[in-house]
């Protein structure tokens, strides 16, 4: 056998030393970071990061396995940090909001499709971010919601009740119709047509594209160079770029068309007073150097996508929970009747006197949070917490679902128990889930007061007028499923809406 030459031995020695040094540096780096699973060479934790199905449950399980409420994932050099407790999310995303309010780079959605005008996806380092947030915070502050939007919510909810009476089997579609009509009325003063509505169509098309982009093409975010592949290239390059080009024109339509229509209606004298006309009339609007019309167009067009499904899915969850918990319905109806006498429908002024209805709303939001992993934040600069390093550009997920199912915070979390939010002699109320389900810090949901008002009135009105019953075919026994995207929804389920009384239905018909 030939013996290796001295130079070969030297080369092997250098290689072994380099590998040892590299591993040592990597280990030291890893020790500085929050707890993580063991990592593979080059891939890091790519294979461990749950990204399909009920990924929030898997994330919670990994945290439990590591006995840590925060877990770092090395995704081929990019850090992803998952916060599984309210305490960690509050410390970092709320209290250090100035550092944790970015959004990760979204190559497909923002750079290829051109959704970068959309506040939900916009990085907070973008120069006009603050102006966008300011406009929406003003438009949706509690006093504006009460004064301007309460009068619009009620008619939409009453129409929904009337429609459910006529077509109970379509209840889910009718809930969604209510939330979409409401947002389009608030934002554009647009009354949706019962048949195919142009505004709804373009907004839904844009929403569908954004789902396809995040589910099918998110790999482009990991390998940004792919965006430069020419469209004629056979294979994925072609498909992805063709999709992006078509989706870009849909996104542009969703942004511009409703705006232009409202402007035409203003000229024709047929525009209804709405958020857009208010903004167009507002001479004191602070634009921070941005084109005024662009600012108004961008702020308003972000709202359909952010507000319609979130609110309607949360209301469908409420219906499912009522179906599974008839005794909760009975207690709620007793409370409602004691306040309205059963002779009128509930109104916002009744809210302080209906603590159990309030608790049902909170428990529905907790039981199946619609955005279980929130919307990811990005860290602007290196930060330290619990003596660990959170490097600049780390993507941070708040596992809202894990927070809602933390048995240390919510007793028997799988059970639907509205009474957990009512303090009694023996124990205090459990924390309001709204502190987490609407997100955190400088990115907290600006539409939360509108969502809260819409849901509260819907819950109170539905319970005042209907008994929600299980269908005879027993389909309610199916387990809850969730969608595989970043949002969770209850599965398709059937139920029976039985009018509580003829008098209640008369009250509904009188208001339509
Ligand atoms: C039950 C209903 C809703 C829930 C649970 C919900 C939840 C959320 C969550 C978790 C976020 C991400 C916050 C973060 O990044 O930390 C968010 C963002 C947002 N929501 Fe909502 N939302 C709801 C309804 C609405 C409504 C009705 C509107 C407006 C009409 C709205 C507008 C927005 C906007 C514009 C953003 C992006 C804010 C930003 O990125 O700075 N949402 N929402």
From TrEMBL:
Protein name per the record: Cytochrome P450
Pfam families to which the protein is assigned, alphabetical: p450
UniProt-annotated binding residues for heme: 445
UniProt keyword Oxidoreductase, yes or no: yes
PANTHER family: P450, PUTATIVE (EUROFUNG)-RELATED, P450, PUTATIVE (EUROFUNG)-RELATED-RELATED
Keywords: Heme, Iron, Metal-binding, Monooxygenase, Oxidoreductase
Entry superkingdom: Eukaryota
Species, as recorded: Coniophora puteana (strain RWD-64-598) (Brown rot fungus)
Cofactors that this protein relies on: heme
Family: Belongs to the cytochrome P450 family.
Keyword field contains rRNA processing: no
Pathway assigned to this chain's UniProt record: Secondary metabolite biosynthesis
Gene3D superfamilies in the record: Cytochrome P450
Gene Ontology terms for molecular function: heme binding; iron ion binding; monooxygenase activity; oxidoreductase activity, acting on paired donors, with incorporation or reduction of molecular oxygen
């Amino acid at each position: 056998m030939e013996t290796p030459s001295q130079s070969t031995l030297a080369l092997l020695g250098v290689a072994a030393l380099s590998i040892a040094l590299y591993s040592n540096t990597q280990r030291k780096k890893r020790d500085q970071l929050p707890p993580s699973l063991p990592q593979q060479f080059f891939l890091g934790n790519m294979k461990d990061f749950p990204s399909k199905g009920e990924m929030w449950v898997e994330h919670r399980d990994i945290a439990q396995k590591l006995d840590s409420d925060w877990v770092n994932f090395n995704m081929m050099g990019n850090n992803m940090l998952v916060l599984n407790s309210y305490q960690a999310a509050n410390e970092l995303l709320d209290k250090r909001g100035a550092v944790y309010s970015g959004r990760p780079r979204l190559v497909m959605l923002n750079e290829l499709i051109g959704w970068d005008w959309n506040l939900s996806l916009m990085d907070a380092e973008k120069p006009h971010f603050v102006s966008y947030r300011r406009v929406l915070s003003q438009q949706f502050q509690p006093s504006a919601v009460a004064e301007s939007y309460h009068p619009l919510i009620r008619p939409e909810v009453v129409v929904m009740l009337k429609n459910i009476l006529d077509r109970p089997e379509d209840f889910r579609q009718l809930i969604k119709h209510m939330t979409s009509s409401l947002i389009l009325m608030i934002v554009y003063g647009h009354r949706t047509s019962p048949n195919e509505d142009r505004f709804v169509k373009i907004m839904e098309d844009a929403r569908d594209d954004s789902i396809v982009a995040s589910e099918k093409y998110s790999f482009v975010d990991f390998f940004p160079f792919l965006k430069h592949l020419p469209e004629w290239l056979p294979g994925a390059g072609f498909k992805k770029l063709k999709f992006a080009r078509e989706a870009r024109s849909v996104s542009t339509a969703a942004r511009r068309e409703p705006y232009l229509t409202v402007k035409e209606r203003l000229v024709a004298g047929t525009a209804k007073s709405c958020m857009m006309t208010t903004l167009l009339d507002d001479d004191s609007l602070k634009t921070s150097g941005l084109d005024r019309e662009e600012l108004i167009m961008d702020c308003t067009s972000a709202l359909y996508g952010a507000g319609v499904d979130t609110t309607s899915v949360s209301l469908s969850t409420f219906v499912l929970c009522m179906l599974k918990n008839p005794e909760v319905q009975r207690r709620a109806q007793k409370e409602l009747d004691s306040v309205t006498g059963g002779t009128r429908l509930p109104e916002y002024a009744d809210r302080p006197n209906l603590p159990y209805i309030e608790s049902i709303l909170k428990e529905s939001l907790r039981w199946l949070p619609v955005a279980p992993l929130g919307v990811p934040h990005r860290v602007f600069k290196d930060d330290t917490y619990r003596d660990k390093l959170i490097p600049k550009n780390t993507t941070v997920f708040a596992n809202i679902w894990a927070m809602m199912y933390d048995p240390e915070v919510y007793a028997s979390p799988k059970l639907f128990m509205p009474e957990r939010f009512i303090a009694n002699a023996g124990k205090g109320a459990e924390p309001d889930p709204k502190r987490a389900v609407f997100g955190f810090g400088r990115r907290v949901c600006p539409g939360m007061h509108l969502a809260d008002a819409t849901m509260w009135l819907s819950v109170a009105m539905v319970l005042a007028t209907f008994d929600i019953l299980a269908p005879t075919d027993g389909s309610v026994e199916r387990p809850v499923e969730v969608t595989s995207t970043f949002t969770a929804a209850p599965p398709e389920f059937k139920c029976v809406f039985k009018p509580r009384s003829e008098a209640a239905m008369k009250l509904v018909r009188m208001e339509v």
